[in-house]
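Hey, can you fold this one?
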Amino acid sequence: MAESDGQERTEEATPKRLQQAREKGQVARSKELASVSVLVVGAVALMWFGETLARALYTMMGRLFSLSREEIFDIGKLYDIGLGSLGSLLIPLLLILVTLFIAAMLGAAGVGGISFSVEAAMPKWSKMNPLSGLKRMVGLQSWVELVKSILKVALVSGTAFYLINAAKGDLFQLSMDVYPQNIFHALDILLEFILLISCTLLIVVAIDIPFQIWQHADQLKMTKQEVKDEYKETEGKPEVKGRIRMLQREAAQRRMMAEVPSADVVITNPEHFSVALRYKQDQDKAPVVVAKGTDHMAMKIREVAREHGIYVVPAPPLARSLYHSTELEQEIPDGLFTAVAQVLAYVFQLKQYRKRGGQRPNLKSEDLPIPPDLRQ
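Sure. Predicted structure:
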């Protein structure tokens, strides 16, 4: 279907488009399923409760046609008789009506589910446009409705003719039956006819349901440009998303820098990498990475560490391994426990040296035990 912009609706509807259509009450519906379900279930309900209803009607009519003179001229008695007669009809009639109501609800919701929309109930002037009506009369929907109507007439008339021809013996027997058995026999034959004829209309339902689902999906199809516009609206413009990501990175970096003062040591590759580690014996099972960065961020981590008296230990191989094998707020890998333990021991000895003096501790970063699979 060509649009005004020249684009074809070739793309399947997106979840957002389907949700918007559902909110507007635009869902696939099969009127045939709703009507046939009522017919079939109604016939079954009459077969179940019809005898009780018929006997109640028979009793009521017999009572009303056998009124005495006193009852006819006594308004109070007439009221009681009429109310009692109607009361006997109430239960079977209510059962049939409730069954039909449930069948109508299930049939209507069988395709498209249950959907309530105020917008769908509002009057639309476009539907009153004669030109739009003419277009609908010659559209695909009209041809499908015509085919369904012809098929329904053919099925109903053909099935009815077949059933009447097959039940000729029973129909002729009605005149030989005794009243009121002939009435109940006729009702049984009639209900069987109604049920069988209604069931033949399931063929129309089997044709209508796939067509309605296909037509609904076809009406909601989108052009490539509509899909792109919806994606931009949902996900945001690329420049806006880039700006959001940049702000998120900056916020994450600020949070990370705020954790540097809690570190026990910053291990560096003097030119490129800095990794800040925290190890609190009463809270951490193993050393935890609280900050890491490269280049400019590595320099900022070292500056903050020096401002807060955090020891900065140059150990290039270990710094590279920690940077590439860890994430923020996570414990270091098992393979680096020994190397990091030696660095922490070196920091402890350095603190003792500055307090008490003596021989200055020495750390050979090249000799730190780093597994080959963690070397970078």
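The two ends are 59 Å apart (CA to CA). Let me know if you want another pass with a different chain boundary.
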